[in-house]
């Protein structure tokens, strides 16, 4: 299965996720299709950035340690084999460059509309913190509600107990704010910049 999605990062996996969501909504009428949220970490964070550029069906997104630019990620990632295998070469090779650019969420920033919580850590050597900062900047420069949750002592995972508690509280608060049925949630709360 993983081999079939090689060089298909925003293609087959995205289509599969959207088809699966459609099937869930069709089969389970109790799911509120007007208050959906999506969360992802690592490749899942990449997919959140991709989703933001390709659909507005979600009310809230959470991107944890996700790829913003496949090209900039190549030059900072701790395991070069991974992008070279996935995108079939190095980004300075013309043929492979097309692959990197085709699947880069950064190309679709102009379509981003969904309120997004971006989470990243300073000691993440898999995906440099600049990927999270870039996503946050892209959101805020377009006036898309966003929040950046930064862990100076974290890596690609949230391992410290206090950080885990903070992570969970922030994620729950973000999703609750944007999917709440309560019309009395103050707009200032929804649009606060932190």
TrEMBL record:
Top-level taxon of origin: Eukaryota
Q: Indicate what this protein is called per its UniProt record.
A: Dipeptidylpeptidase
* Organism expressing this protein natively: Linderina macrospora
What lineage does the source organism belong to? Answer: Eukaryota, Fungi, Fungi incertae sedis, Zoopagomycota, Kickxellomycotina
Q: Which gene encodes it?
A: dpp5_3
């Amino acid at each position: 299965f993983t081999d079939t999605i090689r060089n298909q990062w925003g293609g087959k996996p995205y289509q599969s996720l959207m088809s699966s969501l459609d099937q869930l909504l069709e089969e389970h009428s109790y799911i509120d299709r007007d208050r959906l949220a999506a969360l992802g970490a690592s490749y899942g964070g990449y997919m959140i950035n991709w989703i933001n550029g390709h659909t507005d069906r979600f009310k809230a997104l959470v991107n944890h340690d996700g790829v913003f630019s496949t090209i900039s990620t190549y030059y900072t990632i701790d395991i070069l084999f991974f992008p070279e295998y996935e995108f079939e070469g190095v980004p300075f090779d013309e043929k492979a460059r097309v692959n990197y650019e085709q699947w880069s969420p950064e190309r679709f920033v102009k379509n981003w509309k969904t309120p997004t919580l971006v989470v990243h850590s300073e000691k993440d050597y898999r995906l440099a913190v600049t990927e999270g900062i870039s996503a946050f900047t892209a959101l805020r420069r377009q006036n898309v509600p966003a929040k950046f949750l930064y862990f100076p002592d974290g890596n690609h995972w949230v391992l410290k107990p206090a950080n885990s508690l903070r992570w969970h509280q922030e994620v729950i608060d973000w999703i609750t704010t944007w999917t709440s049925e309560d019309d009395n949630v103050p707009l200032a709360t929804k649009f606060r910049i932190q």
